[in-house]
Design a protein that fits this description.
The protein is an alpha/beta fold and 277 residues long. It has helices spanning 33-38, 44-60, 64-77, 83-97, 104-115, 128-138, 167-180, 197-201, 213-222, 235-238, 240-243, 264-276, and strands spanning 14-17, 119-127, 142-150, 156-162, 188-191, 205-209, 226-227, 250-251. Helix 6 links the parallel strand 2 (119-127) and strand 3 (142-150). The radius of gyration is 18 Å and the shape is globular.
Length: 277
């Protein structure tokens, strides 16, 4: 249960949210696969593979090795993608694709944290082309995301500048705490994946949301609260305050998220190879 309104004589506090399967019911980037196909960024075969990847993601998530394969693959895949085109595609389809899959429970928590005077920060392995607009839709104060190098031609070079994953998320949280004056002992964090264990360990109030098996075991052993989010709902239907233009997000990273729409290709190919072997 959340505590009441913050005592402003105390240091500031924040609530850090993972995105996929924590705030929204699916993978944020995989959800845009059809839109990227229609925009000419990926082919039909990739769209079919992302449908499979979405199933795998929802069934069990991705472990560390799978995430590393995705990172290497996606850094090559997005090479040459025009950043402006990616942002335009996301902007045009954001409300149709993301608004319906936001968890009612997560939206309520975000509202409660803001009411209590805490900042809300989305911390996601996906990139800012996807995560920033979602953060603004939710009224988040800040966003931390993966970023890639953008060349002088306005296209991704294929080089990863910053990968917001695992321990790196915890480092970003500590840096924000230093720059914004957050007292981490009074901060909250929410995630579904054991890969975010460092992020959860970095705050005084960690929460496991729809946790994978390993995170569930850790949460039980450490007596962390376990939350079950299962009611996706459009924000306009349940939070009129969030249906108006939210306060601008102060973004802490920018980058590659759109490329992750084809992350399923990594999973699919590796499983096919294992089957053939």
């Amino acid at each position: 249960m959340l505590r009441g309104v913050e005592n402003h004589s105390l240091p500031r506090a924040a609530a850090f949210f993972d995105l996929d399967k924590t705030v929204i019911a699916k993978s944020s980037t995989l959800t845009f696969s059809k839109s990227f196909y229609q925009g000419g960024l990926i082919n039909r075969r990739a769209v079919l593979r992302t449908a499979y990847a979405q199933f795998v993601f929802l069934a069990g998530g991705a472990d560390h090795d799978q995430m590393e394969r995705m990172r290497k693959y996606l850094s090559a895949l997005c090479r040459g993608w025009n950043v402006r085109q990616v942002k335009e595609i996301v902007a045009e389809t954001l409300h149709d694709l993301i608004d319906p899959i936001i968890y009612d429970e997560a939206a309520t928590l975000i509202e409660q944290h803001h009411t209590a005077g805490r900042d809300v920060v989305i911390v996601s392995t996906s990139g800012a082309e996807v995560v920033e607009p979602i953060g603004e839709l939710l009224g988040a104060d800040r966003v931390v995301a993966t970023r890639m190098v953008v060349g002088d031609d306005g296209c991704f070079t294929g080089e990863v500048e910053y990968y917001a994953y695992g321990p790196t998320k915890a480092e970003a949280i500590r840096q924000l705490a230093g720059s914004e004056g957050y007292d981490l002992a009074r901060c909250y964090a929410y995630s579904d994946s054991v890969t975010d264990l460092p992020m959860l360990e970095s705050v005084g109030h960690p929460h496991a949301v729809n946790p994978d098996r390993t995170l569930r075991r850790e949460a039980v052993a450490r007596e962390w609260p376990i939350l079950d989010f299962h009611r996706p709902v459009r924000l306009k239907q349940r939070l009129p305050a969030l249906s108006v233009p939210p306060r601008p997000a102060l973004v802490a990273a920018a980058a590659i998220g759109a490329a992750a729409a084809t992350a399923g290709m990594v999973w699919y190919a590796s499983r096919r190879r294992a089957t053939v072997a």
